[in-house]
Amino acid sequence: MEFIDSHAHLSGPEFLETIDSVLLRAQEAGVTRIINICTDQDSLSKGLELAKKHPWIYNTAATTPHDVENEGEALFPVMEHHARKGDLVAIGETGLDYYYEHSPKKTQRHIFIKYLHLALECCLPVVIHCRNAFKDFFEIIDAEYCLNERPAPGVLHCFTGTLEEAKQVIERGWYLSLSGIVTFKKSEELREIAKIIPLSQLLIETDAPYLAPQSKRGKSNEPSFLPEIAEIIATVKNLPLESVAKATAENARQLFKLSSL
To answer: Which of 58, 178, 194, 233 has the most CB atoms around it within 10 Å of its CB?
Structure first.
């Protein structure tokens, strides 16, 4: 059985000393590919080194909405260079976060639009972080990120929005990615949302080292924990685990245009 972790932060400082054992455990758990999310120059540099050593790891890059006030303009040319060079399989994670609002909303929107335009120019999908900002998010992608009058490819990572917001994402043909949050005891609403996500638009992720699933709460998350997320989704959708694993892996291959190993 094959699993693809569509969102993990492998090249951050948390995995600096343990990356080899983390990757070995991932392979032993059936994780065949990992999308590594780079959010600054250091994590991107280390991510590119990681991908050279392990061809089953792929990189994306962008400045998160939390950091765009301090680093957005300065780092954009760096991310742009590697996107145009062909080092990335997606632009992200980018987007809007009005829950914490570590950066002004206006600045978040400005940098978000710049990354959307870059994705269109480079024919890359986008990986989106969106929290408490769906109204602006939908308005922006409808206006700024379209191909043939339809939203260009993307995924809402670690989705925790409402049922109505999920339906709007689905209507636009985007993918929704579920993380370990769907396994939490108090996540009944998210499990209800998992039921209505078409299998053809579903991805799974760990968001490692964050958000370890229920049985590993309190521990540093890692890609080897991905099967637990798939198991919960399979249970709520009343499907065999193999069906969820196969569909989400195929969806990840299509979205990120992953090459054969």
So the answer is: 178
Q: What is the pTM of this model?
A: 0.97
Average pLDDT of span 86-110: 96
pLDDT of residue 3: 98
pLDDT in the model for residue 261: 61
Residue 261 within a domain: no
- The 3-class secondary structure across the chain, one letter per residue, is CCEEEEEECCCCHHHCCCHHHHHHHHHHCCEEEEEEEECCHHHHHHHHHHHHHCCCEEEEECCCCCCHHHHHHHHHHHHHHHHHHCCCCEEEEEEEECCCCCCCHHHHHHHHHHHHHHHHHHCCCEEEEEECCHHHHHHHHHHHCEECCEECCEEECCCCCCHHHHHHHHHCCCEEEECHHHHCCCCHHHHHHHHHCCHHHEEECCCCCCCCCHHHCCCCCCHHHHHHHHHHHHHHHCCCHHHHHHHHHHHHHHHHCCCCC
Domain that holds residue 221: 3-256
pLDDT of residue 259: 80
Residue where the block lists tokens 């400082």: 13
CB 96 within 8 A of CB 135: no
CATH number, domain at 227? 3.20.20.140
Residue 27 inside a domain? The answer is yes
- Position 242 in a domain: yes
Quote the CA–CA distance of 4 and 55 in Å, as a whole number.
14
